[in-house]
Predict the 3D structure of the following.
Amino acid sequence: MKATTCFLWGMAVCLLSCGKGEGDYDASGVFETTEVTVSARGGGEIMRFDLEEGDHLEAGEVVGYIDTVQLHLKKEELLGNLLATDSRRYDVGRQIASLRQEIATQKREQQRYENLVRVEAANQKQLDDINSRLAVLEKQLAAQIETLENGNRSVGGQVLMLEAQIGQIEDQIVKSLIISPVKGAVLSKYAEQGELATQGRSLFKVGDLENMYLRAYITAPQLTSLKVGQPVKVYADEGEKGRREYEGTISWISDQAEFTPKTIQTRDERANLVYAVKVSVRNDGYIKRGMYGEIKIMNN
């Protein structure tokens, strides 16, 4: 009789506990953040790397750089080649000045002999010789101009190639800077000053801890009552004090069902298939990555 009384009392306590918890939340999940792994964009020794895990960085903040001595030397070499190549460019006007002067002289002679022939003071052969000489000079001028312009085009092409190579070197120098692409906190650090970095090597991970999101899972019946942009209540564990409440917004709803993760509880524990949702939450500093949280769907 005593054993039966204890058993009934225990069942009553369990039922009361279950009844109290039901309805407190509609879905549960884990708090996550947008993480960016920053990798080396160039190769060489890490000359400076001023950050530690937990540091807060601004978007575009420079936290270090990779050795660029060889890149600067290569740039100086290319600049020297560029100056030497550009010096071979012809000044077409100066190169053909003497030939233009000779043509101008022949044209004056042509005019003079035409007048002399007209008054029969000179014979036609003399005028024909001048005309022939003038035609030869004009052809020489055209050929010289074409040769000089072709030479300048060749020099111009070489200059463009060298300028492109210099641009590539300058781009590599810029990419030797270690820069945080987003605003956030340093979550992990994978390298140290003095180590050798290769292109693509992970250097550190940064995450936006101010704007977190809760990845929760809802059942098919709940799916019809949610839409992107809808406000919901979000609850984060506060230890022995209970739960801390936040305002959240549905930012994403999966269009594919999946099996319920083992670590996740749903409103209907018998549901085998659930839909993932993301709830954006403004973090006041108390929400941590990996913490469990719950959401309560607000009734319209």
The CA atoms of residues 129 and 271 lie 109 Å apart. Confidence is low (pLDDT under 50) at residues 1-23.
